[in-house]
Design a protein that fits this description.
The protein is mainly β. The chain has one helix and twelve strands. The chain has a single domain, classed as Lipocalin (Beta Barrel).
């Protein structure tokens, strides 16, 4: 093999590996995100579905470094606030989180489908066990985080769509 062919073969391999690396990159959700209630559809008390409440502030603090993702959710109402956190990996392995403030155990799996993080979850709660199928993705400009969820429990199936703005 001539030197010219070796250099050409090396360049082709480098391009192939670069293309593969770019294809494998996923969005990074790291940041502080605040709910936009006007653009969100929530599940409220008793499973009622409607627009996000104007008197409630919901923020997500996300630390994301592939394949780990950690999320802290903070909910502030007029009279109270509560916070809970969960961690998972994005490689499809099951992650178990105990949320003591909610007295819940959640088993989840997350994996990528292109630039969307797909998550499934089974939650065991003192009130009502439920399952979810979630989709998490960024807007094209990266300034909005969209969280879509299908909740299934004894009351049936409900759909939630939360839109968060980067702070």
């Amino acid at each position: 093999m001539t030197l010219k062919r070796i250099v050409l073969a090396g360049a082709v391999l480098q391009m192939a590996f670069s293309t593969f690396a770019v294809a494998q990159q996923h969005p990074n959700f790291t940041g502080l995100w605040r709910l936009d209630p006007d653009r969100s559809r929530m599940v409220g008390a008793g499973g009622r579905v409607g627009p996000g409440p104007q008197d409630r502030e919901i923020t997500w603090i996300i630390a994301h470094g592939e394949p780990r993702i950690s999320v802290t959710v903070n909910v502030k109402d007029r009279d109270s606030s509560h916070e809970f956190s969960f961690d998972c990996t994005t490689d499809g392995n099951e992650c178990t989180n105990y949320l003591p403030d909610l007295n819940e155990i959640r088993r989840m799996r997350a994996s990528w489908a292109a630039d969307t993080l797909l998550m499934t979850q089974t939650a065991h709660t003192p009130r009502n066990n439920f399952e979810t199928a979630d989709r998490l993705y960024l807007s094209d400009d990266g300034q909005e985080l969209v969280f879509e969820r299908i909740i299934t429990d004894t009351r049936g199936e409900r759909v939630v769509r939360q839109v968060f703005r980067k702070q």
